[in-house]
Each structure stands twice: as structure tokens, then as C-alpha cells.
């Protein structure tokens, strides 16, 4: 039973805690780690559509992420209309072509070679939908007052992490795409001035034959320090 009370005039509810015996905790954490370790960035998508309700549930999961002062400074734009996806691909490839042919230093290009990426971004049209996350630096209130949001970049980053986990949990594939600069997304989607593009994520089923780099993640001793 959920209990409620006011603290300094603000409503609070009892936390619906879920605890497990140590043995179950160990098993659940291990299984989730193994499942998430299968997640890979995918660049070869099927065009098979994804049910809208699945995308909605994924975004609702992302929106459960913590945010500065609980301002939830994000907007998730879902693009599935072919003409819009084509425009986004065209503009993204313009930026990527310049990046791969002058903007990126040689060291960066060398680091990308094992991934075999280039400026061509067919997945922006092939994937059935694109989820574009916009960060909201402030909110427009009555009479034009700009109310700031807090820790916007950190909050959106956490939400995107939740989003990627939810996509993988649903059995779908995704790619984090960051054409730079990304201002063209604001123009194509006619977003308001308080929103700036943060991340572009194609989402869908992997292609029937889908190849990903054989990557190895850093071992535990390389990523953790106990104090």
C-alpha cells in the first residue's frame, strides 16, 4: 500500500522498494550483464516496421531517467516518414563527408578504421524509425520568461543510456549517430529555439545478415577501482 504525506507542503509517497535475497541478486545482475554485453552498434538494418507502441514504451522507459531538479529536459522526436528520413540522410552525409575529408585528424580516422565506417549513412533511410533526442536548455513560460533547466547534458546522457538499454531489451538494434554539426535537424523538424539536437538513434530490426566488428570490452580490472 502506497502511503503519502506532505513535507514542507510538497507531496511525497513511500518508495516501492524491491529487494532480493543475495543469491537472486547475484543471478539477476549476472544475467542482465550478460544480456547487455550482447548489445552492439548496428549499421545494417531491416526496413521492417516496428510497432508504434513498442517505440512509445522504449521512450517512456528513457523518460524514467533522473534529471536535474526533475526538469526532464528532453524531447524525443520519432521520424518514420520516408521523405523526412531522406532529407536527414542528405544533410547528415554532407556534414560527414566534410568530417571524413578534412575535419577529422588522422589519429581519429585511424581509430575508426577497425569499425570500417565512412561518410555514407544508408541506415538513416533503411531503419524504420529515427529517434532524435533534443535537449531543452530552458523552458519558455508566460510573458516570455525563460526558466532554466539544470544539468541538461548529463540528464540527457543518462536518458539516452536508458533508451539504448530499453531498445536492446525489446530485441531491437540501434546506432548512436552524431553528425557534427547537427543544427540541420532543428531546421528539418522545425524545433523551437530552446531545443538543441543531442543524439540521433536509428532503431529497428537488424538486417537478416548483419555484420558487426568483433570488439572486446575492457576487462573489469581496467575499468574499476576500489577504495
Walkthrough of the structure:
The chain has 227 residues and is an alpha+beta fold. The protein has a domain at 50-204: 3-Layer(aba) Sandwich (NADH Oxidase), CATH 3.40.109. 38% of the residues lie in helices and 18% in strands. The protein is built from eight helices and eight strands. It has helices at 22-36, 52-62, 82-103, 106-112, 123-126, 152-169, 183-188, 220-223, and strands at residues 4-7, 10-13, 74-79, 129-136, 138-140, 146-148, 173-174, 195-204. It has a four-stranded antiparallel beta sheet with strand order 3-4-8-7. Strands 1-2 form a two-stranded antiparallel ribbon. A two-stranded antiparallel sheet has the order 5-6. A hairpin with a 2-residue loop joins strand 1 (4-7) and strand 2. Helix 2 (52-62) packs across helix 6 (152-169). The protein starts with a strand and ends with a helix. 22% of the residues are buried. The model has no long low-confidence stretch (mean pLDDT 96).
